[in-house]
Amino acid sequence: MMQDLDLGDIEEKDWKCATFKQVVDLTEKTDEAIKLWGEGKAGEFKGKQEKIDEAVDVLFGLEKKARLGGDTKSTMRLALEIIKLLQAVGLYDRLVDSVEVLMKRRAQAKSVQVAVIKTAKNAIDSSPEDQRVPLIKKLRDICQGKLHVELEFAQLSVELAAIWEKEGKLRDCADIMLDVQVETIGNMERVEKLKILLLQIRLNLDVDDYVRAAIMARKTTSRALSKPNSRLIKLQYYELMVRYYKHFGNYWYLAKCWMEIFQHVTDEETKNDLKDHPLVVSPGKALASVLAYLMLSPNKVTLDREQTDCAAFSLWNKETDRLKLVKKYGEEKLAEVVEVYRAASGYFLQKELIGWPDFEVKFASIKGSDVFSSTPSAWADLRQRVTEHNLRVISTHYNRVTLPRLGTLIDLPPQETEDAICKLVIDKEIWARVDRIDGIVTFKRKKNSTEVMHDMKTGVDHVLSQITSACHLIHKEYMINGIKQR
To answer: pLDDT tier at 10 (50, 70, 90 boundaries)?
Structure first.
């Protein structure tokens, strides 16, 4: 049978490790203390500092008895009553100080600590605006490093970042959000995790910290973003990745991001859920961006280690053949809406030379689009892609050509022509040698004797194989005709 507990009956060695069982039940005393000194008396105590001090002391004293006696339920009720009383009388500084005392109390149950932090967090929301930031910072410092209140620590960090962002303190916002590791918070909802992750990415992009933005972006996956209640979050995520890759001018990954957006906004379920949301881009704009960035992308994809592949790209979005993607998205039903982009990208599918002066005049309208206007170098890069296409076509039709003649074909002066050839050779897209003395470009590598003999043997084998097949067919016809004559 439980009995009242005198604090003197507990030796230091008996409770310093907080492992003893409940030995007292202070429910009745707790009810009486709350009735006499609790939140209900806040109207009488307000403005009377002595009464408030006395009430807090009484509640703290009884909380200590309940805590050392193992009565967790009464301990929690008394701890929360202290917070509520100080909130009711408007003493928010003392409220946070009391929270710190309660959190540091020996043998304090973690369930009590979590309840105290949650109640204090809600209480601070009603505090005056001029006091809110210091109170949030102090409460956040109390939570830091404690795993059982890491959810409240993250929520306080987000709240503080929102206040500082309104004040223009973006660097401070980004710094405090670095302390939040959402992937380790087990009791946080998945949607809330994703929202915090988006906030961290956006703040790092706002302060031009692209390294940390990339680290944060790799903390999620396509599977996490594909849940029904994450549709808007998925769009916001890829729009942030567009900002990231646009900074580096990585057209290939920009095209990949817009492919994800296009696939998402054309999905029937997504259209029904987000049709009235102002942040959703139109399918036409998404498709136009896909085709534009595919035109701007180099033909051979090279993965930059500093711009790691986005971890949230879908499994279907792993294609690395640029021309296949140009053909695929050029055949979309919505391509008629962006006919000019489909027509322009279609030139790269043909094994014919593209005359840049005519191309530039014909498709001058896309120069003022969002893709080209937001990136000053985009039009020059498109010119480079046209040149590379022309050189690949010429390398399949010419064995040797003079440098001036080649420059005429691709509309470039000799020096720029040579630079363009060197770039493609380095990227191993074509094989070429430039004789600067004679001004001749060779596109076909001279074969050695072994390779010539191998080609000859291959040719002979092919001819013999064809002769053997013809003989079999002739013999077959003789047999069929012989049977018919009988």
So the answer is: very low
